[in-house]
Write a structure and sequence with these properties.
This protein is mainly alpha-helical and about 200 residues long. Helix content is about 70%, strand content about 0%. The protein contains 9 helices and no strands.
């Protein structure tokens, strides 16, 4: 089967298809052969972009972190004042996890964590985390948040919201009708301890 993609278009299509395959069948369902079939290209075409499944999983996880960062960055760019941005960031994080469970599980799963030494993956994961650090730093500067090491406070905030997201995504708690309301409550409760 001839490749029908122009140069530069195939990699994004492969990443999208890989995310769908993971969503539908988990990482075990993802093979480079299945990926080629899903995209409609030759069996060898994915190997031009990924040397093996491990490299593909890292790329999918990195793409997930990029999407998460974009959602968090939108909160930072909103210009909202006071504590509202922190609540909004918590909601954005939980919403991303619930709407993209396959990406989320992969991003924080054993396959990706075992490959964090890969610069592209670590860089994208750090970039998402530093959106939260930037928000905390700005909150401290405005007096909305208490002083302290912004990275340490970011770890506390991340752990709290990540815990809720993981419980929801993994089905360890019943998903409420209004996930965003629960995420807002979680963020507000956290903020009571972080407020300046």
């Amino acid at each position: 089967m001839a490749d029908s993609y122009h140069h530069g278009d195939l990699r994004p299509a492969l990443l999208d298809a890989a995310a769908r395959l993971i969503r539908d069948g988990g990482t075990d369902a993802l093979t480079l052969r299945a990926l080629a079939e899903a995209v409609g290209v030759s069996r060898t075409a994915p190997y031009r972009h990924f040397k093996d499944k491990a490299e593909l999983l890292v790329a999918v996880a990195a793409e997930g972190f990029e999407r998460l960062r974009a959602a968090l960055r939108a909160v930072n760019a909103s210009g909202a004042a006071g504590l509202a941005p922190f609540e909004a960031m918590g909601v954005a994080y939980v919403r991303f996890a619930v709407e993209n469970p396959a990406h989320y599980r992969l991003m924080y799963g054993r396959e990706a964590l075992a490959r964090r030494e890969v610069p592209a993956l670590q860089t994208t994961a750090d970039a998402a985390y530093y959106e939260l650090v930037a928000l905390i730093t700005a909150g401290q500067a405005s007096g909305a948040l208490r002083t302290g090491d912004p990275e340490a406070l970011a770890y506390v905030a991340w752990a709290t919201v990540h815990g809720l997201a993981s419980l929801l995504v993994d089905g360890q708690m019943e998903q409420p009708d209004d996930v965003e309301a629960l995420a807002r409550l979680t963020a507000r409760t956290l903020l009571e301890g972080l407020a300046g």
